[in-house]
């Protein structure tokens, strides 16, 4: 089997604002699309051509500068059904694997993949891989699970993933052995940064072996921090649930003299959940995120600012992302989880103890209430918005896979679903811009200031 590069020239540019490099937006295709798509469209719309590109969201100044310097406007191949497809639906065997941490919407993705494959393309052989990439290693002894519309009929109201998940690296040659033995033609890999990196590396092994197999990624991160793409599933649900925690913390704080409610939310490297939830439920007085350093001590530090807040209003609410304030920990040992993620120190408990000690030394009683809803949020079913988003994401992934596109993912850019090379997103992250509109809105809403020493 040979591979062909899709439409669009290689593009390299740097967007100075966030120092993100775009090297090549071309999508790899399994060569030849000999079959006519079985899809039919009754009311307009229809098939998408590979040459249809979606402009990346640049400000006018950046676009003008790029054109002036002889570059081309940066665009990504539009997602959607193709008129010619690579695989004969009656012969396809597809597999779905979910990896990494739990996230609202995983079952929505599984269901939509199955429904689109089965009802729209007529694919009858769909397999679920149990417990992440472990399910593709024979030594673990897991059997594939047969999937069909009846199996996935009622899973939208369930949290987690019916396939199970796992973390940690696996041997790609052995994974390829299993895929080849099972005669898998399409592998959908649903996961975050580590999974997308694994999907890219696996695609390289598949290509080296010459297998007629498409590897398509579906980005999953509750933190909404995968590079380039604007939205990932689960984020909307996470923000909705986080606002409930903020309301609860506020209720507790105002019920007692000098009440302090503190909520620790997800956000290892990026503070999108904390910042967005604080705007959605405007009870937070302090929001702490990984992108913006803060100090505890000093006239303008967190502790003195919190003391002033209590003196003025008698209560306070603090929202802290799990990756914030890691500079306060002197332990240089970096434990890592099975996926290689750096182990974070518990900033929530650290701040709780620091605040209690600070006021105890003053002989001033406070009522501290600490809430960590992380696992409750991760295990929730998707809300309506995320469920709809998952449906579009999964169906576009099926269209791409059936057309023979591989080593790529479906993402949401500039308000549209597009195809992106895995190499463009894997290993890179989006961050809250401290000078951007989101963080400035948080500062205006909370009035917290910069929380730096005087």
Automatic annotation (TrEMBL):
Keyword Magnesium annotated: yes
GO MF, any single term: 6-phosphofructokinase activity
Known cofactor(s): Mg(2+)
Active site: 223 (proton acceptor)
Residues noted as binding substrate in the record, renumbered to the chain: 221-223, 266-268, 322, 375-378
EC number: 2.7.1.11
UniProt keyword terms in alphabetical order: ATP-binding, Cytoplasm, Glycolysis, Kinase, Magnesium, Metal-binding, Nucleotide-binding, Transferase
Family: Belongs to the phosphofructokinase type A (PFKA) family. PPi-dependent PFK group II subfamily. Atypical ATP-dependent clade 'X' sub-subfamily.
Protein name from the UniProt record: ATP-dependent 6-phosphofructokinase
Organism listed in the record: Desulfobotulus pelophilus
């Amino acid at each position: 089997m040979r591979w062909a590069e899709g439409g669009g020239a290689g593009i390299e540019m740097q967007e100075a604002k966030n120092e993100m490099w775009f090297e090549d937006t071309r999508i790899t295709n399994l060569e030849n699309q000999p079959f006519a798509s079985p899809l039919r469209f009754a009311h307009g719309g229809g098939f998408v051509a590979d040459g249809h590109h979606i402009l990346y969201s640049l400000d006018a100044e950046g676009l003008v500068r790029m054109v002036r310097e002889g570059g081309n406007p940066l665009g990504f191949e539009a997602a959607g059904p193709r008129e010619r497809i690579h695989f004969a639906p009656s012969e396809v065997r597809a597999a779905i694997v979910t990896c990494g941490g739990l996230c609202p919407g995983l079952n929505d993705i599984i269901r939509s993949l199955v429904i689109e494959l089965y009802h729209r393309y007529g694919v009858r052989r769909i397999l679920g891989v149990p417990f992440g990439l472990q399910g593709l290693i024979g030594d673990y002894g897991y059997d594939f699970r047969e999937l069909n519309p009846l199996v996935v009929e009622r899973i939208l109201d369930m949290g987690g993933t019916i396939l199970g998940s796992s973390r940690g690296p696996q041997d790609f040659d052995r994974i390829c052995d299993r895929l080849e033995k099972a005669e898998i033609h399409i592998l959908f890999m649903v996961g975050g940064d580590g999974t997308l990196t694994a999907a890219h590396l696996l695609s390289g092994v598949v290509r080296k072996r010459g297998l007629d197999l498409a590897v398509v990624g579906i980005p999953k991160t509750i933190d909404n921090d995968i590079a380039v793409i604007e939205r990932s599933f689960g984020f909307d649900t996470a923000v909705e649930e986080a606002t409930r925690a903020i309301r609860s913390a506020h209720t507790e704080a105002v019920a007692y003299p000098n009440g302090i409610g503190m909520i620790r939310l997800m956000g290892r490297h990026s503070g999108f959940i904390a910042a967005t939830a604080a705007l959605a439920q405007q009870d937070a007085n302090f929001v702490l995120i990984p992108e913006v350093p803060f100090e505890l001590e000093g006239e303008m530090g967190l502790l003195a600012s919190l003391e002033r807040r209590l003196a003025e209003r008698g209560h306070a609410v603090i929202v802290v992302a799990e990756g914030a304030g890691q500079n306060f920990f002197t332990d240089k040992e970096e434990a890592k989880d099975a996926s290689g993620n750096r182990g974070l120190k518990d900033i929530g408990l650290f701040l709780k103890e620091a605040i209690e000690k600070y006021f105890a030394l003053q002989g001033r009683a406070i009522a501290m209430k600490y809430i960590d809803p992380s696992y409750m949020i991760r295990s929730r079913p998707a809300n309506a918005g995320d469920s709809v988003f998952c449906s579009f994401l999964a169906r576009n992934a099926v269209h791409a896979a059936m057309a023979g596109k591989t080593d790529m993912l479906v993402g949401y850019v500039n308000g549209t679903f597009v195809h992106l090379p895995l190499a463009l997103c894997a290993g890179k992250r989006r961050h809250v811009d401290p000078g951007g509109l989101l963080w400035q809105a948080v500062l205006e809403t909370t009035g917290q200031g910069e929380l730096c020493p005087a």
